[in-house]
DNA sequence: GCATGTGTAAAATGATCGTTTTACACTCTC
DNA sequence: GAGAGTGTAAAACGATCATTTTACACATGC
């Protein structure tokens, strides 16, 4: 496995499990099996590593969430949590731990959330045949809610979000027919 | 103002704005205008301070969220964000930064989320005249979603959550009439 | 009038932080 | 076979971390 890939994926695990600030560079280099000199050659700084982790996670996330239905969307979330556990949105956590003051991290967060919103807008069009901002916003909120509520409610959160999304879609469909 | 109250409220602001781990004890004592000796006499440790902040925030939160309707619930959230800004759930953030390994913090988080769930179950009974676990779960998810999505979508997140909750309640009401 | 309690200021504790440096080994390629 | 590139190990950097200690000031109540 490529050295940079290994570094970023072990860093992602440690950051996710123990927090960003709480994870020191010694722990990172030791877990990745590389020297600190190599780490800094590759990512420049700890903030650079954090941003690289987030951008890689964003790619991975959108590879997984590639279906065209709400069932696929929340199914992907369920799979994600089953494999990696649920500890809240890593982008928001990074943003919060850095007080929103680190540009590369704030940008990675904003980019990720923009793409998520676009993904959901696409799903809405497939589900009800037309764009619907209010419905897309609701599904985004349910997705965000499930992501965080799953940390203390487990799989029930994802189930509940999927069911609520289905009901809202059903409502939007019949509303579209009657008007 | 009482010295302990002042300490906890300034600590809450600093933790919320800059993150828990990133906020050092020197900064805390300086901002609160007390010596480090006094701080440790009052809260024992940094983890103790974090737990005290969370428990005080929980009290304040439930004082604000005391209405009996979804409009009151999301109205309270709107007020909260307008006054203090939206940076995600401080309980989940504390839990995440400590890797879930600090007992007093994990307990404060669990207690807060339990109370929130009970609050919402009560609102559901008032709104539709009977308990409804699925509806309560959905509103909890919308609330959690709005709390976090407000960090990057602002007030639109709270609006969207309130509207979606209203639609789900309307659906549950007519369902109750037809069955 | 002397403990007791509660506060301050400031230094010291030892550990850990992110980052850089020094010195050295291996493998390519021209 | 010299030089460039990429890696390691390990020490050093100065700063900052959470916490404790020392020394002192000002109340309170018995």
TrEMBL record, chains A, B:
The lineage of its organism: Bacteria, Pseudomonadati, Pseudomonadota, Gammaproteobacteria, Oceanospirillales. Keywords: DNA-binding, Transcription, Transcription regulation. Gene3D superfamilies: Tetracycline Repressor, domain 2. GO terms for molecular function: DNA binding. This is TetR/AcrR family transcriptional regulator. Residues 1-61 form the HTH tetR-type domain. Residues 24-43 bind DNA.
């Amino acid at each position: 496995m490529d050295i940079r890939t290994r570094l970023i994926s072990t860093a992602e695990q440690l950051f996710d499990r123990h927090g960003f600030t709480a994870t020191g560079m010694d722990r990172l280099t030791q877990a990745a099996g590389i020297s600190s000199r190599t780490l800094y050659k590759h990512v420049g700084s700890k903030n650079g590593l954090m941003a690289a982790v987030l951008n890689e996670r964003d790619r991975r996330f959108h590879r997984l969430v590639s279906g065209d239905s709400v069932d696929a969307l929340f199914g992907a979330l369920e799979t994600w949590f089953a494999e990696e556990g649920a500890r809240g949105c890593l982008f928001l956590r990074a943003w919060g731990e850095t007080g929103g003051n680190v540009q590369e991290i704030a940008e990675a967060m904003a980019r990720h959330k923009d793409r998520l919103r676009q993904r959901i807008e696409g799903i809405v069009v497939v589900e009800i045949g037309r764009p619907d901002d209010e419905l897309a916003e609701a599904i985004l909120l349910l997705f965000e809610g499930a992501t965080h509520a799953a940390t203390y409610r487990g799989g029930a959160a994802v189930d509940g979000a999927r069911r609520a999304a289905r009901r809202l879609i059903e409502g939007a469909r019949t509303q579209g027919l009657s008007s």
